Automatic annotation (TrEMBL), chain A:
It is a multi-pass membrane protein. InterPro entries: AA_ABC_transptr_permease_3TM, ArtM/GltK/GlnP/TcyL/YhdX-like, MetI-like, MetI-like_sf. PROSITE patterns: ABC_TM1 (PS50928). Belongs to the binding-protein-dependent transport system permease family. HisMQ subfamily. It comes from Acidihalobacter ferrooxydans. The chain crosses the membrane at residues 20-39, 51-70, 90-110, 131-149, 179-197, 218-239, 259-278, 357-382. GO terms for biological process: amino acid transport. It is found in: Cell inner membrane; Cell membrane. This is Amino acid ABC transporter permease. Its main location: membrane.
UniProtKB/TrEMBL annotation, chain B:
Residues 1-24 form the signal peptide. Residues 36-265 form the Solute-binding protein family 3/N-terminal domain. InterPro entries: Bact_solute-bind_prot3, SBP_3_CS, Solute-binding_3/MltF_N. It comes from the Bacteria. Keywords: Signal, Transport. This is Amino acid ABC transporter substrate-binding protein. GO terms for biological process: amino acid transport. Belongs to the bacterial solute-binding protein 3 family.
Length: 391, 340
């Protein structure tokens, strides 16, 4: 009897099928909505005589950009402008993420230090920079710090090699000669050596219980080997030293003030947040773990490195990921001080010169979405690897 | 801030699509229905559009908005202002956020043909120039090879500079900012050697420097910059109203009708003046407003010459000479078609 009843249940009461139907309806609705918006936009733009195509990508842009990581001139195309802006955005974001992580880690640990002064200083740093809007900090570093530096002709001069002025920070730029390749090869060999060293040290520790200072050994290898090769090859490296010629310094390596100010602001603002995340991660590890590790006779640094941080990381990584995303997205504030990022040169200048608002804003949003999802993906993969493995 | 702008642009685009032709051909009607003109102006440029000590917008560009409101409603104060940067201006107009863009915008072929926009006339003939500090010791733009320029982003200025430097085989660097304020501040602080912009703007920005006497405008003018109000090209009636409001101001100056004598002039027996002030003919009707439209403009805003002198000319701190902007009868090129 019950058997008969179950088979008689009409399909529209079946929970699985109903679930599928509901999902399909939602998808159809969302797709329909976006199709409607896209179609309507197209019709309206045509009705108003606003042309809309991607053909502008091949046209000459005709304006100049102050910083580009790839060759660019005012006769380059809008496609090139897009690449220049994208690379500038990625450049400042990647460097910002690296610096903010390091600074955040140091300050987060300092905040928990038993040294009263150090902990208070870290606390003051965090509270100050986390609670001031980022745009104000960018303006502060740009207008109050970078622009009050002296003019090019009166730059701060460190030994005739380093110059600081309101046009940027000028450093000597290394110019490698052909024999420099040997040094590069030595560096690669040293990295291979470190990997081998790690394995060997682990095996030895498992067999004999003797630890080996892998960090310092590896450090010596990576610095030492290329250095020896460098001297053996007769120091195959020239330097291009910045020199004042005409209006400005020529030669050398320059960090423009727009970049420096933006990087400083992004780094410090994000580091303050990361420091709090690091602190909460460390506090989440039960004190018993620390005590247990100490009772094994491990020194403090090893306790932090082997017991506390690995457990703290699983708490730390997800919120830090969103800080990385924030930093990348916040880099678009660059346009306020003239750093040529994607939003400034592509969604700003290129949009205005071509009038292709819909296409350009669409592409820009797509790019930020892609960058954000990529960071998320990478961090999730990393999270999978470091999270606690339950045995 | 920029994210907000992007979101705003995105919302505007979605609005443009969902509103489904709500405005098509109906700007005139919608302005009439809401009872005021939404006017896009600059973010603060003395003489053209800036906020005075009483919190009122004033300037040559602002007067265009006021003239249109006077023609439409008989009241020059029925205007609401939207300050826009150079980068935002066209999207704001295209998406219907504003009804007129009156913001020292250069009339170019691309802008007139491919953006769905139409220029309604020229209220200032300008040209691009260079502002430098006197301490630099430069006297001509030809000596600017290797210099760093401060520019406002998204303007014809950026393109003209690139053309000029390329044709004179000079290398240069350009730092671009969103607002004219940030641009002049960076120039003031020495971030760049040269500030380049339309000459009218250079004179205006110079007054805001820490030491205006220490800066000078170089003699070279490297481009033609006819500046004027812009409307969407989907409503001829609205376009005609804006265009003829501007023409009425120029015709009033030609006929010697000013804000002070306009009441008396109503009794004039000069047929040109009679047609202008609506004492003969039905010219207001032709553009959908009252026949006293030009009378209202002149009595409340003044004629073109009055507006020029008050905002940028000898009665203003800018002290710009009429030059090209004098009427054609005075050696300039400002010329309005007749009302008949």
């Amino acid at each position: 009897m019950s058997n008969h009843q179950a088979s008689a249940t009409p399909w529209w009461l079946n929970q699985r099928i109903r679930g599928w139907i509901a999902q399909l309806l939602v998808i159809a609705f969302v797709a329909g909505f976006f199709t409607f918006v896209a179609y309507n936009t197209q019709v309206n733009m045509q009705a108003r005589g606003i042309s809309n195509s991607l053909s502008f990508f091949g046209q000459e842009a005709g304006f100049s950009v102050i910083q580009s990581l790839i060759p660019y001139s005012s006769s380059s195309t809008y496609g090139r402008v897009f690449l220049v802006g994208l690379l500038n955005t990625l450049f400042v974001s990647v460097i910002g993420i690296i610096f903010a992580s390091l600074l955040g880690l140091v300050i987060g640990i300092a905040r928990l230090s038993s040294n009263w002064l150090l902990a208070r200083l870290a606390g003051a740093f965090i509270e100050t920079f986390r609670n001031i809007p980022l745009l104000l900090q960018i303006f502060f570093f740009y207008f109050a710090v970078m622009q009050v530096l002296p003019t090019a002709r009166q730059s701060f001069d460190l030994g005739g090699l380093f110059f600081f002025n309101n046009r940027g920070v000028y450093l000597p730029r290394p110019v490698p000669e052909p024999a420099f390749w040997a040094v590069v090869i030595a560096f690669v060999v040293a990295i291979g050596g470190v990997i081998w060293l790690r394995r060997w040290a682990r095996r030895r520790q498992e067999e004999t219980g003797q630890p080996f200072p892998v960090f310092w050994g590896g450090f010596g290898l990576i610095i030492g080997l290329p250095l020896i090769v460098f001297f053996l090859a007769g120091m195959p490296l020239g330097w291009s030293v910045p020199q004042l010629r005409g209006f400005n310094f020529q030669g050398g390596l320059v960090a423009i003030p727009e970049f420096t100010a933006l990087l400083l602001a992004l780094t410090i603002y994000t580091a303050a947040s990361i420091a709090e995340i690091v602190r909460s991660g460390i506090l989440s590890v039960s004190h018993g773990q620390t005590e247990a590790a100490r009772s094994l006779g491990l020194p403090n640094q090893r306790v932090l490195q082997l017991v506390v941080l690995p457990q703290a990381l699983r708490v730390i990584i997800p919120p830090v990921t969103s800080q990385y995303l924030n930093l990348t997205k916040n880099s678009s504030l660059a346009t306020a001080i003239g750093y040529p990022d994607l939003v400034s040169v592509f969604a700003g200048t290129a949009l205005n010169q071509t009038g292709q608002a819909v296409v350009i804003i669409g592409i820009t949003m797509g790019v930020y979405l892609t960058i954000s999802l990529s960071i998320s993906l990478l961090m999730n993969v990393y999270n999978q690897r470091v999270r606690l493995v339950e045995r | 801030m920029q994210i907000v702008k992007i979101v705003a642009a995105g919302v505007a685009i979605v609005g443009m699509s969902v509103a489904a032709n709500a405005h098509a051909g109906k700007t005139f009607d919608s302005v009439k229905a809401k009872g005021y003109v939404q006017c896009g102006v600059g973010t603060g440029l003395p003489g053209f559009s800036s906020v005075d000590s009483k919190g009122q917008y004033t300037g040559l560009d602002v007067d265009v908005c006021r003239a249109v409101a006077a023609a439409m409603f008989g009241d020059a104060n029925k205007v609401r202002y939207t300050p826009l940067t150079a980068k935002e201006r066209f999207t704001a107009l295209q998406s219907g956020e504003i009804d007129i863009l009156s913001r020292n915008t250069t009339w170019t072929m691309t802008r007139d043909t491919s953006l769905g926009l139409t220029f309604a006339g020229v209220n200032y003939y300008d040209g691009q120039g260079f502002l430098v500090k006197k301490s630099l010791g430069v006297t001509s733009a030809k000596e600017l090879a290797g210099a760093t320029f401060c520019i406002q982003a998204g303007t014809t200025t950026e393109l003209n500079l690139a053309d000029y430097m390329r044709s004179h085989h000079m290398k240069y660097q350009a730092v671009t900012f969103d607002t004219s304020d940030a641009t002049s501040k960076a120039f003031d602080n020495g971030r760049c050697d040269v500030l380049t912009s339309d000459q009218s703007q250079l004179y205006a920005l110079r007054t805001q420097l820490k030491n205006p006497e220490g800066a000078m405008v170089l003699p070279e003018v490297i481009s033609k910059e006819p500046l004027g109000p812009v409307v969407r090209s989907d409503d001829t009636q609205w376009f005609n109203l804006v265009k003829w409001s501007l023409f009425a101001m120029k015709n009033a100056e030609w006929l010697g009708v000013t804000s002070k004598n306009v009441a008396e002039m109503k009794k004039s027996n000069n047929p040109n003046i009679q047609r202008l002030l609506g004492t003969s003919g039905e010219f207001g009707k032709m553009i959908g407003v009252s026949n006293a439209w030009a009378y209202d403009i002149i009595s409340q805003v003044g004629n073109y010459g009055e507006s020029f002198e008050r905002n940028v000319g000898m009665e203003s701190p800018l002290k710009i000479k009429r030059g090209l902007n004098a009427l054609w009868t005075q050696g300039g090129i400002q010329y309005a078609p007749p009302i008949r």
